[in-house]
Design brief:
32% helix, single chain, alpha/beta
Length: 274
């Protein structure tokens, strides 16, 4: 009986620690969003050659979200700065453990550049609410779950959803349910707007469902390029941005070769007609 009591106490204590993580991450994002910034204004041109100006989202001090230094990799800032033509986008974000600082970048850039109207909606996905930890090792393609629709227009509500998604799961394995999340965003949004997907270079669990996506997906990869994301961007007529590189697939429906870090990936897939 005493042993059972000890086990119960340990389990409850661990649960309390796990549930506290979401609140910590949410407050770190809030602090980062409101951090002091420089007065730098960045001049960029869109595809039509029109000049735009955006406020730099770089901070004047060091910040961490989920243990990650937000200044180490600014690929999300860089992509948003480089594409002023991205307006009213449906932003879909991999919300597994390695990605927490990048949602911070989305929120901070949007907070400083609200006039750019970048975001129409946001979707977070954590690849199944940690079904592996719950003993269910089966993550069915197309219905893995762990998809959340935070209200990006109301920060307190947004951060509550952020905390809930953190506490409910962090992935648990390699492949992610990116396509399921995009399909859910597509069903949720009636504006017909394009998607921006922010992810890391893992494999996509449900890439076989890519033909269900009917709009361009502009992928921002926070590390390296992997074949599934090339397939996703190219099949939808979107693009890929990664640290130090960018490839536009909007007008390419022939076999296309992308070179990155001395590796060559060639993919021949069908493009949607937009």
């Amino acid at each position: 009986m005493k042993n059972l009591l000890r086990i119960t106490i340990v389990v409850l204590a661990f649960s309390g620690i796990a549930n506290a993580q979401g609140a910590v991450i949410a407050e770190e994002i809030r602090s980062y969003m409101n951090a002091e910034s420089s007065d730098e204004v960045i001049e960029v041109k869109d595809k039509a050659g029109k000049t735009h100006y955006v406020r730099s989202a770089a901070t004047t001090s060091t910040h961490h979200i989920g243990g990650q230094n937000t200044s180490t990799n600014t690929v999300v800032f860089d992509a948003f700065n480089a594409h002023p033509e991205w307006q009213n986008m449906n932003v879909v974000v991999d919300w597994t453990g390695s990605m927490y600082s990048y949602v911070g970048q989305v929120v901070r850039w949007h907070h400083l550049n609200k006039d750019k109207q970048l975001i129409n909606s946001m979707v977070l996905f954590n690849d199944g609410d940690d079904k592996l930890r719950q003993g269910n090792k089966h993550k069915p393609v197309g219905s893995t779950g762990g998809i959340y629709f935070p209200d990006h227009l109301e920060i307190d509500s947004f951060l509550k959803t952020v905390a809930l998604a953190v506490d409910n799961g962090g992935g648990g394995d390699g492949p992610e349910n990116d396509v399921e999340a995009i399909i859910a965003a597509q069903a949720h949004d009636q504006t017909g707007s394009d998607f921006v997907l922010i992810a890391d270079g893992t494999s996509i669990r449900d890439i076989a469902l890519v033909n269900q996506i009917k709009r361009p997906v502009h992928v921002i990869l926070c590390d390296h390029v992997t074949p599934d994301y090339i397939t996703l961007a190219r099949a939808t007529g979107g693009s890929i941005t990664w640290p130090g590189g960018y490839t536009d697939y909007s007008n390419q429906c022939a076999t296309h070769q992308v070179t990155h870090c001395n590796h060559h990936h060639t993919h021949d897939v069908a493009c949607h007609v937009h």
